[in-house]
Design goal:
The protein is 23% helix and 22% strand. It is α+β, with helices and mostly antiparallel strands and 285 residues long.
Length: 285
């Protein structure tokens, strides 16, 4: 799958280009009404009309460059394919994080949320995603709880053809900072053997979140490409990591008190957000 790594975002110029001037081609097929499209995708049309700039959904990214370019909303997107690492905060991402966590923890408040924009991690992740897309995946609708609270821009950049989802991972600040630079090490042992563990239930992930010096807790919101998923019977299976050697399985879905998603290959994970939060909503001292 490494053949996809390092592929730049530019695509060969086509005869018909998006009228918004983004440089991308419009779909060759006409719309349901038989009319030819004038823009490359709905996201580009909406963002250009309402915000004055261009951005693209996953279908457009795939058509343009196998979706190896970073999401349009990244501050560092223009620097691609150059090297970069930025941790971008802001009120918008803080509010999104609070909405996600409050679904299961109503009093929770996210004090700070940082978006990790790292060229090397994204290169590895997008290459693996492109490989699984080309290989083929059995598509399933997992309906993760996170999808109901994620912003429009984040959801439209998910590739459902490879079962790409947003999932949560409770951890420590030290581990989160290390993961933001070098990604997960899929060797943690748990109820389903060794792997990287995720949940779509914030209360479940909160059980593993560690406190910082000022008593906040840490949770990651990650993109995860599940690929072909092996569903396990309810209950623990501490040898489920045996499926890591099965070429037909890319991840495991276990069920104890909550759903747990286990991934064996770190390149199927992109740790996009670090959230600093207080479960009880109290202010820092």
């Amino acid at each position: 799958w490494l053949k996809y790594a390092g592929t730049g975002p530019a695509c060969p110029p086509m005869a018909a280009e998006c009228e918004n001037g983004c440089g991308r081609s419009i779909p060759e097929r006409p719309g349901p009404d038989g009319q030819k499209f004038r823009t490359c995708c709905k996201s580009c049309a909406f963002l250009h009309r309402t915000k004055g700039f261009c951005g693209h959904d996953i279908t457009c990214d795939i058509r343009a460059n196998d979706a190896v370019c970073p999401p349009w909303y990244w501050k560092s997107a223009a620097a691609w394919p150059g090297a970069f690492h930025e941790e971008v905060g802001g009120e918008y991402v803080r509010q999104m994080g609070t909405k996600i966590l409050q679904r299961r923890m109503p009093k929770c408040q996210v004090e700070r949320c940082e978006r990790i924009e790292d060229a090397l991690l994204w290169e590895s992740y997008s290459a693996r995603r492109a490989f699984l897309r080309e290989r083929g995946v059995v598509v399933e609708d997992f309906k993760p709880e996170t999808s109901e609270s994620i912003a429009f821009s984040a959801n439209t950049t998910l590739d459902h053809s490879v079962n790409e989802v947003w999932l949560l991972h409770g951890t420590s600040e030290e581990a989160a900072k290390a993961i933001a630079r070098s990604n997960f090490v899929c060797s943690t042992s748990g109820c389903f053997g060794k792997g990287a563990y995720f949940a779509d239930n914030s209360y479940k992930s909160d059980q593993y979140a560690k406190r910082t010096e000022d008593d906040a807790k840490i949770m990651l919101l990650c993109r995860v490409v599940l690929g072909n998923v092996k569903r396990l019977e309810k209950g623990q299976d501490r040898s489920a990591d045996r499926f890591a050697d099965d070429p037909a399985v890319d991840s495991v879905l276990g069920l104890t008190d909550n759903r747990e998603f286990i991934v064996f290959d770190a390149s199927q994970i992109y740790p996009e957000y670090i959230m600093y939060y207080r479960p009880d909503g109290t202010d820092s001292i």
